[in-house]
Write a structure and sequence with these properties.
alpha/beta, Rossmann fold, globular
Length: 151
C-alpha cells in the first residue's frame, strides 16, 4: 500500500519555460492529497533558491499540496543521486516500497526512483522509451490524470 507520492516539477506538473500548469495538475494533486503524503524533488540551476521554487508553486496555486519540497541547488546533490530520494523518504517517514516517484525524465526521475526501490511512473505523452532495467518505469502514463488508475 502506498503512503507517499513524490513528483518531479518541470514538465511533470508545470511546463518548463512558460511556468503554466500542465493539464489536470490541480485536480490530481487535490485528490491525491486526501490519501497520500506528497513530496516534490526538483533539479535546479545552482543560483535557484527554494524561495524561487515556492513562489512558482504558489503562483501556480499548487504549493499548498506538498508536505515537503527538496531543491537540488540547496542540497548539493540532485536526481538521480540516491541521497535526495532517501532524504525525501526519511522526511516523509515512508519506506521506498511505500512510495511512488512520478516524473518525465528517465535518466533522473525513473532511474533514481528505481535505484532506491520506489515504484516509478513515467509521464510520457508519446511512446518512445525502451531502456535498461534501471531506466524502465513500473508504469507509463500519457497524462497526469491517469495516475489514479495505478494507485
Amino acid at each position: 500500500m502506498f503512503k507517499a507520492i513524490v513528483f518531479d516539477l518541470g514538465n511533470t506538473l508545470i511546463e518548463e519555460g512558460s511556468g503554466s500548469l500542465l493539464p489536470y495538475t490541480v485536480s490530481v494533486l487535490r485528490e491525491l492529497k486526501k490519501k497520500y503524503k506528497l513530496g516534490l524533488i526538483t533539479n535546479t540551476l545552482p543560483e535557484t533558491k527554494k524561495e524561487n521554487v515556492m513562489n512558482l508553486l504558489n503562483k501556480a496555486g499548487i504549493g499548498e499540496y506538498f508536505d515537503q519540497i527538496l531543491v537540488s541547488s540547496e542540497l548539493g546533490f540532485s536526481k538521480p543521486d540516491p541521497h535526495i530520494f532517501h532524504l525525501m523518504l526519511n522526511i516523509l517517514d515512508v519506506k521506498p516500497e511505500e512510495s511512488v516517484m512520478v516524473g518525465n525524465t528517465i535518466s533522473t526521475d525513473i532511474f533514481g526512483g528505481n535505484r532506491v526501490g520506489m515504484q516509478t511512473v513515467l509521464i510520457q505523452p508519446e511512446d518512445e522509451y525502451n531502456r535498461s532495467e534501471w531506466e524502465r518505469p513500473n508504469h507509463v502514463i500519457k497524462s497526469l490524470n491517469e495516475i489514479s488508475f495505478i494507485l
